[in-house]
Design a protein that fits this description.
Beta-Lactamase; five-stranded antiparallel sheet; 8 helices
């Protein structure tokens, strides 16, 4: 019996050790930033990705009291976890140790004692979403410029992206003239649909012009007549 108990203890110890190794491997090699902190909001551990995202050094981050960080926009989410809640922050952040300006998605979760349920610290998960935010900002700026253009012209004007199959995707449309003629944007959202409203006497020159644009990528200046919705 004694040997069996000793064997069982060794097995359990091996299992726990193996589990710790797997945890360390996942923590260190994770593609997202991970950090742990104690109940005083002092960082006790972090992985390489966290250091990289904050453009800092491990020795400057481990031991950092987050109550003293310069940009406190992330602090409420960090403290929420110490109160037993899940913390969340998404937006701009200026790092304390490197003064880098980035956009982050931060989630914080409490770490509890499994026996007592008491919060003993927390873990933070950080992703760098700077590229996503910059793309969204660029789209917002572009949309505002297009809105201004639309307000300045009563012509039918648009910016198109030509697809490999010859179809197009509209990035912007000033549809005032087309609306006056009785058409909705979806009525003329392809070159084929445009061809159906072109005056029959002008259809050949219209098709040649579209071919020059889509196949040769050359500039075309063209006048042609179109039919209103009511004929």
């Amino acid at each position: 019996m004694a040997q069996k108990k000793v064997g069982e203890k060794r097995f359990e110890g091996s299992f726990e050790y193996d589990g710790e190794l797997k945890y360390r491997l996942i923590f260190e090699k994770s593609p997202i930033g991970l950090f742990q902190y104690n109940t005083d909001a002092v960082i006790t551990e972090c992985n390489d990705r966290f250091v990289e995202i904050l453009k800092s050094k491990r020795e400057l981050l481990v031991g950092l009291n987050m109550h003293k960080i310069n940009d406190k926009s992330v602090l409420p989410a960090i403290l929420d976890a110490l109160d037993g809640k899940n913390g969340y922050y998404e937006g701009p952040y200026t790092t304390t140790t490197s003064n880098a300006q980035i956009y982050v998605l931060l989630k914080a979760v409490p770490l509890t004692n499994p026996k007592t349920g008491q919060v003993v610290g927390a873990m933070g998960i950080v992703e760098d979403i700077s590229d996503l935010y910059r793309t969204q900002e660029e789209l917002t700026i572009k949309e505002e410029r297009f809105r201004i253009l639309s307000s300045l012209t009563s012509d039918s004007a648009s910016i198109l992206t030509i697809q490999p199959d010859g179809s197009f995707k509209r990035e912007w449309l000033s549809s005032a003239l087309m609306v006056q003629l009785g058409y909705k944007p979806e009525d003329v959202d392809s070159f084929e649909k445009w061809a159906t409203i072109v005056h029959p006497d002008d259809i050949d020159v219209f098709k040649r012009a579209i071919g020059t644009i889509t196949q040769k990528g050359e500039k075309v200046t063209l006048e042609f007549r179109i039919k209103a919705k009511n004929g």
